[in-house]
Amino acid sequence: MLENIKAVLFDMDGTLVDSLWMWGDIDVEYLGKHGYEVPADLQHTIEGMSFSEAAVYFKEHFRLPVSVEEIKSEWIEMAKDKYAHEVPLKPGALRFLKHLKAQGIPMGIATSSSRELLEAVLESLNLSEYMDYCMTSCEAGAGKPAPDIYEKVAEKLGAAPEECLVFEDTIAGIQAGQNAGSRVCAVAEEQSEGWKEQIFALADYYIESFDEILDGTYRRLKDTKQP
Questions:
Q1: Are residues 143 and 112 in contact, defined by beta-carbon separation less than 8 angstroms?
Q2: What pTM, to 2 d.p., does this model score?
Q3: How much is the CA Rg of the chain, to the nearest whole Å?
Q4: Which of these, 128, 110, 124, lies nearest to 12 by C-alpha position?
Q5: Is 1 contained in some domain?
Q6: Same domain, 144 and 209
Q7: What does the pLDDT look like over 35-79, one tens digit per residue?
């Protein structure tokens, strides 16, 4: 999977860190405060949106009597402590990060989350020692599946998108990596189980754990010349 790869790019939530359960809790609490139940398809609807785009969607769809900036600020406050104390890395991720660092392969994060929450994760899980560059979709100027964020992070790491391996857990994220021209490995995530058939049709590889990459037990989904 890593042959001819010059940089590795990670989505954050649901891919590198196990945090999507937390956002489900926040949605229930936040919308409940405004008198709404969480729609069953909410996570899929906002999948890939930047932090700001998701806040705009909430304001318009639920007709919230607060500003977009107020929505974002409250989300950040609700999430900060959980990111700092309750969100772990995905299985096998640390071993894989150490391997990439030992091999001298640059790494980056391309996340739809906010800069504040990205920094909270980098600090709490000591990821700064592994990541060479990190960017949010808000900073890139477009959410996923637009390729902008992966193109820009790849450039910062000194690699063409075609020379990068992207890790993602959602359909929009996988499409963003592919739209940039990168190979994409899908990472198992409980909230994406209902979309596994579509994910298998899109991604180049699939893993339940990052250990599978180093153990050679990952699933190759497409018949490419690459291992």
A1: yes
A2: 0.87
A3: 17
A4: 110
A5: no
A6: yes
A7: 999 998 888 888 878 889 999 999 999 999 999 999 999 999 988
